[in-house]
Amino acid sequence: MSKQTAEVKAVSRKDLTYREWIWKEMKRNWVAYVMIAPYVLIFTVFTIVPVVLSFVISFTDFNMLQWPNPVWLENYINLFFADDIFLIACKNTLIFAAVVGPVSYLMAFLIAWFINELSPRIRAIVTLIFYAPSIAGQVYLIWGTLFAADSHGWINATLLELGFITSPIAWFQNADYVMPLCIIVALWTSLGTSFLSFIAGLQGVDRSLYEAGAVDGVKNRWQELWYITLPSMKPQLMFGAIMAITSSFGFGGVVTALCGFPSVDYAAHTIMHHLDDYGGSRYEIGYSSAIAVVLFVIMIGANMLVKKVISKVGS
Amino acid sequence: MAKLRTRKHKVVLSRSAGGDAGITMVLTILGIFMFLPMFYVVSQSFKPLDELWMYPPRFLVKNPTFRNYTDLFTLMNDSWVPFSRYIFNTVLTSVLGTFGHLFLASACAYALAKIKFPGGGFVFRTIRTSLMFHSTVTAITSFILMSTFHMIDTYWAIIVPAWGSTLGLYLMKQFMDTNVPDTVLESARLDGASEIRTYWTIAMPMVKPAWLTLIIYSFQGLWNAGSSIYIYSEQLKSFNYAIGQITAGGIKRAGASAAATVLMMMVPILVFVISQSNIIETMGSSGMKD
Lengths: 315, 290
Hints:
A: mainly alpha; MetI-like fold; flat; B: MetI-like fold; disordered N terminus
């Protein structure tokens, strides 16, 4: 049948203009549109429209109460030239993402690679140990208990016992420590989807490639990794990178839960917090939309950049 | 040339002992880093009061007790919104959100993966691009939209956006691409089965691992949802939010809060243990080719 239709299509396509042909195809496949309609409608309303709306509102002074007036670039000018805290937030967000994104990505890959040759049962247990923190809800709050400010905190008590410090340190209230600590906690919860994707990708690499590689002179596991494994799981590397980068911008809630809001001296203040502050608390929707747009551009930009880098792997 | 040896009928490269030792060491250190905090929560949740406040604090519990768990239920009974209501809220939104997402996303994924129609590629690329940004950027404008639809402070504010989450659709579409052969669908169509029937009776049974993965991802997200800017009525708030309130009750509730955390984390962890092999199978086709 497929051959027949192909011929019919080929003949009829010649007689039609491109637009007529598209219209015909659309009518022939009307069921497909019915099937995608409900999902696409919801996706559009709750993802596409909010992004577009953010762009539009970011050029106005909308505040939820009055009809918005256009202010053009004023919000953006204020953001970059008058809002010192925003610049701190930008710096912190970039540090946070630049550390958490790549480190969690590498960690996910290395662990997945290390456990790849274990027996299936042991691999399942190790996978669970590494993956559990990312799905266990608010379990990261335990870091607040471990690093509690007084001498009852396990870390303080241990350091006191060992004589490294003479008085307890208020870890999450100290501008010197909040950022590194939040990064550690974020890394701890970061072995999520990308990790699972790498495990599956490694399992899916064709075994015969390794044999062929051995014959061709691959000498050790590092060469095997570079010449065989990485190139054959490039699609997973790409997907994992996008997951890791996107989630490295989503740790605002973890920071707030551990350091409070605002964090001490804004030391762990990120763009996500700035956005929450202006949008959620002060209802300066125009201004917060400008913040959202900046964050959006940073996220997409980081992802595009990394996609480009990964497409070079093994080529 | 590398020496080959046979292990379990597979030919593998010889591995240096030094490399094996190094890898085991790195894995052990990272494993301890990942595992100890989880273990500490469990240990805390079984500590009696005097051990919680002992100096110096002990990592391990010495005289385990269920006191913290029973305290937790007492605390729950004291709250002015009954605790069963919070549990009901979370279960209701999790179930409705997850199943709606499963049906809408899998129907859409089937059409995008298995029917060639004008615009299909564009729709999929758009959805895939949305994986690149976190939902925090859309939170405030979503709030405005929902308030125009009068969805704020109703269950729908949690449920309906969950239907449109993108990761589930992406994984389902990718899995259908690789695991549902076109020839099978083609012969069903020849037999006169409608497209919707083919989707439901032929394609869907072939992608059970993807379903399960989609269900688990959606469920985890909804189950772990804490306070939401879309909900302000106390009686509509989630179980996780209520647990957070117990934790926020301060240091005197350290034990109860650890017990609550353990109870909350048991559910997603157990679900993952049961479904791990299916999730990994689904992730096998998660790759992005361009």
